[in-house]
Amino acid sequence: MVSRRSLLTLAVGAALTVTACGSDAVFLRERSDTLSAEEVATAAEDALERGVGARPEISCPEELAKEEGATTRCTLTAEDDSVQYGVTVTIASADGRNRISVEVDDEPLG
Description:
globular, DUF4333 domain-containing protein, two-stranded antiparallel ribbon, DUF4333, 2 helices, alpha+beta, signal
C-alpha cells in the first residue's frame, strides 16, 4: 500500500493519466460496455503505482461505463495510518485505448 508521505506527494500533482491497452488485463473485457467495480479499483491502483512507485489499496462501489467523461468515486486507504482518501476515476478516452484519469483528494475523508 501507499504511505501517507507518498499520498501527500501525490496530492501536489493529484491527477495522473495512464494508458491501458494490449496486455493490461483490466481492459480486456472487450465485449462489455462497462468496467466492474473491481476492474476500476485495479486500474486506479495500477495508475497510482506507476505514478508514485507504491501500490495503494483502493475500493470502488460501482462499475464504470466505458464512455469518455464517465466518472466514479472510490476510496483509497493509506497503509501507515489507515487514513482514507477519496479518489475520482474518470474515463479520459474510450477510443479503444481506454485511458483513465485518477485524482486523489487533497484532504482525507471524514
